Amino acid sequence: MNALLLFPNTRIFFFIGLFLLFIGISFHIQIQKNTIGKGLVTMFDVPGESFFIQLPHGHNILIDGGENTSVTEKISKKLPFWEKHIDVIIISHPDKDHIEGVFTAMKQYTIGTIFLSGVHHNSNLTSRFQKITQEKNIKLIFTHSKIDFRIHDFVFDIVFPKTSNMGKIFQKVNNSSLVVRMYNKNNSILFTGDIEKKTENTILSTPAKLKSDILKVAHHGSHSSTTLAFLKAVSPKKALISAHHDNVFGHPSENILKRLSFFSVSTFVTKKNGEVTLSLVD
């Protein structure tokens, strides 16, 4: 009773607040309805590399998290404000420009499962990762080509490595990157992490299926990757290159851009195009 007397307009403000919240929710739902049934693949414009996949059935997949913490802000703009769950995170390899943003995502979202190679990487990033995953009790799967997974009709085929790299030491950790081909009957995308020529040749020496509509170009478009033979095997129609405008390495390589152009591949680069979102075919 006293509270009502002290704040005589509380009820009015309460109902006004509910009304405004309802309008906001209704508006947001209406926006989301425009993409119901439409799968989306977004290449975030972040230092390093990060991709966000929204499948038609509502599942969210994050492939790498880029460098720094900006990825969570970008994810929040892709999801309704109440949605705080990421079903799957795939970590291609434990370099800072691919994994650092994952830490923030793990803190701000509930995570279903993380797929990673488990390759040895002696850095404080590894200990931080272990600490957060243990605190959050996040399921980890150390994957290779015998451990694929499926979400509804989408298959996530682990093309590389063929056998477990758990605890193995690589002279170049780039060449330990998970290579994942996501596909269903109408779509196919090859995610290549930072693999270089050596791993591309290893993959080409096996009977792996590589042909894909979209190629995520390896190692930010560096000249160390995307050999002619590998590009021919994938034969993409579109290519995505994550190369932030302020990267100090000058990625992407002009030679790689010319190679893609020679094969009439429509190429999108964050340095030029910013954030890029492509719709999956129904």
Task: Give a written overview of the molecule.
The chain is an alpha/beta fold. 32% of the residues lie in helices and 22% in strands. It has helices spanning 2-6, 10-33, 70-76, 96-108, 124-136, 197-204, 228-234, 254-262, 270-273; strands at residues 40-43, 51-54, 60-63, 85-90, 110-116, 139-142, 149-151, 154-160, 179-183, 188-191, 214-216, 238-241, 266-269, 276-279. The protein has a seven-stranded mixed β-sheet, covered by helices on one side. Strands 7-8-9-10-11-12-13 form a seven-stranded mixed β-sheet. Helix 4 runs parallel beside helix 5 (124-136).
Mean pLDDT: 89
Strand order of the largest sheet: 6-5-4-3-2-1-14
Low-pLDDT parts are 1-16, 20-36
Count of DSSP-assigned helices: 9
Which range best describes the helical content: under 10%, 10-25%, 25-40%, 40-55%, 55-70% or over 70%?
Answer: 25-40%
Shape field? globular
Structural class: alpha/beta
Order of helices and strands: HHEEEHEHEHEEEEEHEHEHEHE
Rounded to the nearest angstrom, the distance between the terminal CA atoms is 58 Å
Computed Rg: 21 Å
Q: How would you characterize the largest beta sheet?
A: 7 strands, mixed
Based on DSSP secondary structure assignment, what is the total number of beta strands? 14
Q: In percent, how much strand structure appears in the residues? A: 15-25%
